[in-house]
């Protein structure tokens, strides 16, 4: 026994064992299960274990799939652009314009306050605000900006994107703020010493050095938006669809094999997107 | 590379942070083309002074003149100064060449021209083969030379160095300081070097400016500041001195100007407390009647002709001309 423990290789494997067990049980096994089920056969009233490609054939044969995937990418792209814009600005302000650390921490915590409530509640609270007779419409009408209530405020793509941006901007702020705080302040002075203007410093020093943070935030936001279904359902009033809703509809119809096939394709799509993103920026130094 | 030589002058320059005064009405004239060291303990205001000259810290009061211009309120790049930062502050995402060419890029100089100019600068600091490396891939000494090249490419009239050698190991420090000195003489521009190491200042400087408590304690050529300290602070900070309280007042005397004699034969009686062999010299510490610690640096051969041990009573001797009266 002592001899076995003395062997360094075995000791290392033993130390890694708990994590391996957890990952295998809760990550690898479920994914394998989904892949297996995606090849099963399903009829209206039964699910038959099998190895057939019909779920995938149906998925790739349907024009709905392409439309929904495209819509998912659209949500991801627009949300990404907006959260990046807002997130970068907030992080920049916190990291470079707030002088004392106390205030930085205080304002940073302020950003996290919305996260003290659940996603669903934050989403639902938009409904009375954006509705036909909601606060936004009545305020705009009383100011005389509009004559009739705006219909597109709620249950529209606008509402979906608004909710996404609201929910996920913090996931952009945190990693960008984190990378910015690691930028040596003397680099900014050195740039100024070399005659760089504020915009030049931003473009030539801060943005290149913040890239890893931007990339981590991008991965968070893109994966969250692509995997989401509840926000789209609530905020579009069931009028728009993304891949998540496709899967949840299948599940509610007990069409598990079809849902599993869609999930596998979504997983692969997201992995490919992340793979492409990681080609651009090396995030290893951030981890 | 020739640059017009310009005098740098501080006119009662003051820096206040809230109620604390970091630099208190400092006035000094720096000779053009000289190597000057601002020397002092941490928190004495030397770094604030340098940063005000560089333009990275606003001047609360007073003016900074370079040539005939008042540069106190100009942005850093318009002053004719360039700064080399303590940790070099190289841009980690840019190659060595891009780092050196950074200021030219900011000015909108086209890529081939700035590559050529950066190449010339790298040649000056002997780094030509490393132009495509990233700063991370360089040693400390190489990084420092990149920082030097980056500062010099703006053709400054005054180069400001903020503790440039403190990040290097002792061996490299001695080599780099020789290179700094050589470079300054080649370029003929003023170097203003902040340090807290008196050995560094003595080795490098034409002129040493000793600062303490936000003011200049003493300024002058290196030999003068070392041999004739004006205040007790300067005497102790420069090292190699004893401060003696005699009936006529306080005096500084170099440790190697004190000799040992048999008890009662010297000017002051003392009991040896420690003997330390230092190779060429032996450092003998003794305590006098009035409980003053005095160190005598005795040449090795002289000491071992009449060796002493801790506990021995001896007399301390010196020439009166070696005593320097201290103001405080």
TrEMBL record, chain A:
Return the Pfam families for the record.
BPD_transp_1
List this protein's GO terms for biological process.
Answer: transmembrane transport
Principal subcellular localization: membrane
Q: Which UniProt keywords apply?
A: Cell membrane, Membrane, Transmembrane, Transmembrane helix, Transport
Output the Gene Ontology cellular-component terms: plasma membrane
- Record carries keyword ATP-binding: no
Could you name the domain of life of the organism this protein comes from?
Bacteria
Q: Which SUPFAM superfamilies match?
A: MetI-like
Question: What transmembrane ranges does the database entry give?
Answer: 12-40, 75-95, 107-130, 150-177, 255-281
Cellular localization per UniProt? Cell membrane
Q: Domain ABC transmembrane type-1 spans what residues?
A: 69-277
Membrane topology reported for the UniProt record: Multi-pass membrane protein
Q: Which family is this protein grouped under?
A: Belongs to the binding-protein-dependent transport system permease family. CysTW subfamily.
Instruction: List the protein's name.
Output: Putative spermidine/putrescine transport system permease protein
Origin organism is Jannaschia pohangensis
The root-end lineage is:
Bacteria, Pseudomonadati, Pseudomonadota, Alphaproteobacteria, Rhodobacterales
UniProtKB/TrEMBL annotation, chain B:
InterPro entries reported in the protein's UniProt record: AAA+_ATPase, ABC_SmlMolc_Importer, ABC_transporter-like_ATP-bd, ABC_transporter-like_CS, Mo/tungstate-bd_C_term_dom, P-loop_NTPase, Transp-assoc_OB_typ2
Key word Ribosomal protein present: no
Q: Does the keyword Metal-binding apply?
A: no
Q: Name one GO cellular component term.
A: ATP-binding cassette (ABC) transporter complex
Domain named ABC transporter is located at 8-238
MF terms per GO, please?
ATP binding; ATP hydrolysis activity; transmembrane transporter activity
Family annotation (SMART domains): AAA
Keyword terms? ATP-binding, Nucleotide-binding, Transport
PROSITE patterns documented for this protein = ABC_TRANSPORTER_1, ABC_TRANSPORTER_2
Q: State the Gene Ontology BP annotations.
A: quaternary ammonium group transport
List, alphabetically, the Pfam families matched: ABC_tran, TOBE_2
Protein name per the record: Putative spermidine/putrescine transport system ATP-binding protein
Instruction: Provide the species name.
Output: Jannaschia pohangensis
């Amino acid at each position: 026994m002592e001899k076995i423990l003395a062997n360094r290789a075995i000791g290392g494997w033993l130390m890694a064992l708990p994590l391996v067990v957890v990952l295998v049980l809760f990550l690898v096994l479920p994914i394998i299960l989904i892949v297996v089920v995606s090849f099963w056969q399903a009829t209206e009233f039964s699910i038959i274990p099998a190895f057939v490609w019909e779920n995938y054939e149906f998925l790739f044969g349907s024009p709905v799939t392409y439309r929904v995937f495209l819509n998912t990418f659209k949500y991801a792209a627009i949300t990404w652009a907006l959260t990046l814009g807002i997130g970068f600005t907030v992080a920049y302000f916190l990291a470079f314009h707030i002088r004392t650390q106390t205030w930085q921490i205080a304002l940073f915590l302020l950003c996290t306050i919305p996260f003290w409530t659940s996603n669903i509640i934050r989403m639902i609270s938009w409904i009375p605000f954006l509705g036909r007779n909601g606060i936004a419409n009545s305020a705009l009408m009383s100011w005389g900006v509009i004559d009739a209530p705006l219909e597109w405020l709620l249950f529209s793509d606008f509402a979906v994107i608004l909710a996404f941006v609201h929910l996920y901007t913090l996931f952009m702020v945190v990693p960008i703020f984190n990378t910015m705080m690691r930028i040596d302040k003397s680099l900014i002075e050195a740039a100024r010493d070399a005659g760089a203007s504020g915009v030049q410093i931003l473009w030539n020093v801060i943005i290149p050095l913040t890239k890893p943070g931007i990339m981590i935030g991008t991965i968070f936001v893109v994966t969250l938006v692509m995997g989401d279904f509840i926000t789209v359902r609530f905020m579009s009033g069931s009028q728009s669809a993304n891949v998540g809703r496709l899967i949840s509809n299948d599940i509610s119809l007990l069409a598990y094999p079809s849902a599993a096939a869609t999930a596998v394709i979504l997983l692969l799509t997201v992995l490919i997107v992340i793979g492409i993103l990681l080609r651009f920026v090396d995030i290893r130094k951030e981890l | 590379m020739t640059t017009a030589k310009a005098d740098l002058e501080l006119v009662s320059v003051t820096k206040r942070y809230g109620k604390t005064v970091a630099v208190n009405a400092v006035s000094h004239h720096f000779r053009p083309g000289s190597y000057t060291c601002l020397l002092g303990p941490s928190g004495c205001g030397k770094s604030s002074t340098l940063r005000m000259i560089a333009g990275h810290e606003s001047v609360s009061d007073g003016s900074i003149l370079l040539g005939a211009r008042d540069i106190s309120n100009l942005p850093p790049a318009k002053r004719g100064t360039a700064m080399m930062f303590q940790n070099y502050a190289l841009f980690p995402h840019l190659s060595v060449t891009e780092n050196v060419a950074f200021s030219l890029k900011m000015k909108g100089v086209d890529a081939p021209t700035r590559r050529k100019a950066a190449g010339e600068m790298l040649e000056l600091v002997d780094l030509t083969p490393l132009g495509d490396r990233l700063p991370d891939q360089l040693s400390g000494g190489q990084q420092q030379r990149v920082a030097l090249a980056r500062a010099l490419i703006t053709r400054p009239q005054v180069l400001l160095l903020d503790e440039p050698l403190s990040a290097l190991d002792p061996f490299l420090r001695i080599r780099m300081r020789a290179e700094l000195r050589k470079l300054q003489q080649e370029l003929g521009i003023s170097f203003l070097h902040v340090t807290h190491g008196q050995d560094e200042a003595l080795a490098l400087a034409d002129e040493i400016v000793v600062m303490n408590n936000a003011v200049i304690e003493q300024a002058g050529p290196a030999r003068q500041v070392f041999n004739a300290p004006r205040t007790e602070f300067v005497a102790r900070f420069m090292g190699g001195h004893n401060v003696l309280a005699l009936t006529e007042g306080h005096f500084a005397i170099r440790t190697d100007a004190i000799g040992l004699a048999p008890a009662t034969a010297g000017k002051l009686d003392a009991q040896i407390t420690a003997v330390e062999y230092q190779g060429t010299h032996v450092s003998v510490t003794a305590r006098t009647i009035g409980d003053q610690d005095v160190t005598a640096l005795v040449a090795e051969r002289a000491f071992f002709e009449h060796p002493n041990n801790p506990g021995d009573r001896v007399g301390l001797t010196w020439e009166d001309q070696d005593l320097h009266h201290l103001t405080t």
